[in-house]
Amino acid sequence: MSILIDKNSTYIIQGITGREAVTMTRELLDYGAKVVGGVTPGRKGRDVHGVPVEDTVRALTDRMRVDGAIVVVPPAFAADAILEAVEAGIKLIVVVTERIPRKQVAQAVEYAQQEGARIIGPNCLGIIAPGKSRMGGIGGAPEATRRAFVPGSIGVMSRSGGMTVEISNALSQAGLGISTAVSIGGDAIIGSTYAELMPLFEADPDTKGIAIYSEPGGRMEAELADYMQQSKSRLPVVAFMAGRFMDAMPGMRFGHAGTIVEGRADTTADKIARMEAAGINVAERIEEIPALLKQRIG
Amino acid sequence: MSLFITVEIADAVQSDEALKKQLVEVCPVDIFALDGPRLTAVENNLDECTLCRLCLDAAGDKVAVIKLYDGNARLE
Amino acid sequence: MRLYEFEAKQVLAKQGVPLPKRTFAKTPEEAEAAAAAIAGPVVLKSQVLSGGRMKAGGVLFADDPQTAKTHAATILALEINGQQPAGVLVEERRNIAQEYFAAVTWDGRAKRPVIIFSDMGGIDIEEVAETHPDHISRTTFSPSRPFSDYTAKVAVASVGVTGNELAPLTRIVAALARTFLQYDLTLAEINPLVKLDDGSIMALDSHMDMEDEARGAQRTLLTELAIPDSDTRQARPPTQFEIDGALVDSADTRGVAGRVVEFDGDMGLVIGAGGGSLTLFDAVRGAGGKPANYCEIGGNPSVNKAANLTKLVLSKPGVQKIAVMMNVVSNTRADMMARGVIKGCLDAGRVPADTIAIFRIPGSWEEEAVKILQQYGVEYVDRTVSMHEAAGRAVAKMGN
Predict the structure, then answer these.
(1) Tell me, what CATH number does C31's domain have?
(2) Radius of gyration of the CA atoms of chain B, in A
(3) Which domains does chain B have, with CATH numbers?
(4) Are residues C372 and C260 in the same domain?
């Protein structure tokens, strides 16, 4: 099993005719993911690698089952695209777009919650269930993707798209492999946090452990620590914390929009302490993650 | 001078107006340009070549993309 | 981006929030005239983006215009945390009976805006949260619906405020929440919000951060405040090296190769992507390396862009070697990066094999990258060498 997506999941791509989206469409199809349609206003009737293009999301959902939407439109149009997908009844929306103002993200998340839809991202590479399907550019070309993501038993969640691939690659090399990897996004407000995805991994019999990548800024790690303490989770969690140098540089923004040290709770030191107190192992180096998980899984 | 990639355009291309226009259009990094009636390779853009083969698809062996870093191997 | 106090107060004034009489002065003479116009005791406050100005001596009191002039001269000459003040705010001095704290920011857990209110203003709010949790309230509200005053009332009343103070405090906190939503702020704070000895309530100090991503949408306000696009408002002003880095990134729209931050070491870093850069920077420091810079590469930049970034890093005095490292890449191409850094070295008049301490970019198109690197004799490591191991090897080569 996997979480969020499986081999029969069907997707549409909003903004499918853009340069990056055309490449993504090719990579998804070659990996075996079912991309059934795309939307670019004014381009109705065209196709991208054989995938039909429409002006509206409804034009696609009216005639076929659509399980998920991948939003790859420029930041000024991204919130609108999310709302359109939610309104059309799509229940899973991966938002790849970077630099969407957080008020618009929060508004879209509120609407999605009301309609029972889930948002992953923004500012993410998407989701992959190795060997089954993928939703987003995660992994790149199919050959490179298969190398970094071998099917296996670890769930991965990461605030960095690139580090989702790096950590998954380390787990694949170590023989543990990946059940599902989710690039959750690098923004301050995101659709799904670690703690919100944990129950899904919990319910997946194939997942035996969790690896997460985290950064300074935000309260997401504290939320995960609280979840671990309250839920008595069966899953061992190993975290990697980047950006330790930022603790000494308050107010400076590095990396993702969500990464800034504004108070004590934003520092890596505070996050590490909270996670360790909740029984989460914090690795010093990426290559320690597989060994720590193996120890905990037994 | 480019460091990594060079492009050879066969004389046969110069007499084919449609092909010249097509080569200018297909290259995603603008390596081909018309200098008056003549199709030329834009020196500054050669190293940006993504090895996408779109020019080879259009021109067959009338265009050669050469990898200077790989013993002057021709992109097949 | 952070607003100066005098700008934040301009924004509050637009919303009808009561404020002390004040003038922004850029010279001691202007400060003297401002104090004379106020005709009473004044406080002079350094206008810097950094915190801790009180401790640094950036806030002084004067009872007459002549003293105001002298103090203004002192403040204008005083650098605080590396920042020259933009000017000095001359403000009437009032007698305070009670201090409050009010702020609106984003709550990443609730994914909603949150009002934080306390009747223990003027001190470090994190300390209040730890030592007097019953004196602080957190009240989230919808980012979509028009803001309604009752939410502000709940925030204020939750810490036990009632009677004559509740209505005026509610009005001010509601205005702050509307300001937050209207101007795409990530923080809108009034601290202290005060009750004066005559019972009236006003905002004595204010702090606002606007979301960088919303600068385009907020052009009208930024024009009104006379803040140009070039004014980035980081926590410290950018160095020339960093300004040049931003130019490298903006000159070419293909991918990202920039976000350069200068450090005082001698090891040049050409690293990526977002999370990868944070990881690698820690790894280099953990191995005892002294980075000359932080930077980010991502989104498949052009060869030219990667070359220009490389050239910039090499232009920093003392930088003899660079380490080129990324996490396993998906869309950025290893071969394009190899071409870019080699071109950058050659353009800078350096020998790539001697200059590039290590190249670790596994993933997309790495087979092609290996051929390029071999041609120039540059040391390449693949994904079997971890990011930390690669950083360690690069640091070890710095001495040679």
Answers:
(1) 3.30.1490.20
(2) 11
(3) 5-74 (3.30.70.20)
(4) yes
Contacting partners of chain B (3+ CB pairs under 8 A): C
| C174 and C44 in a common domain | no
Residue C69 and residue C32 in contact, taking contact as beta carbons nearer than 8 Å:
yes
Name the residue among C306, C305, C322 with its Cα closest to residue C314: C322
Domain spans of chain A, in order of start? 10-297
C255 to chain A, any CB pair closer than 8 A? The answer is no
* C183 touching A (Cβ < 8 Å): no
Rounded CA-CA distance A261/A268 in Å is 9
Tell whether C367 lies on the interface with A, counting CB pairs under 8 A.
no
| A198 has pLDDT over 60 | yes
The answer to whether residue C231 is domain-embedded is: no
pLDDT digits (tens, 9 = 90+) for A18-52: 877 888 999 999 999 999 999 999 999 988 989 99
Domain interval for residue C157: 96-224
pTM across the whole model: 0.91
CB pairs under 8 A between B and C: 26
Q: What's C287's domain CATH number?
A: 3.40.50.261
Peptide bond just before C192 cis, omega within 30 deg = yes
Cα angle: A48, vertex A52, A55; to 5 degrees? 105
Q: Name the CATH superfamily, with its identifier, for domain A10-297.
A: Succinyl-CoA synthetase domains (3.40.50.261)
Handedness of CA A59, A62, A64, A69 (dihedral sign): positive
For residues B75 and C375, what is the distance between their CA atoms, to the nearest angstrom? 17
| Cβ–Cβ below 8 Å for B50 and C336 | yes
In this complex, the residue of C109, C211, C296 whose CB is nearest that of residue A255 is C296
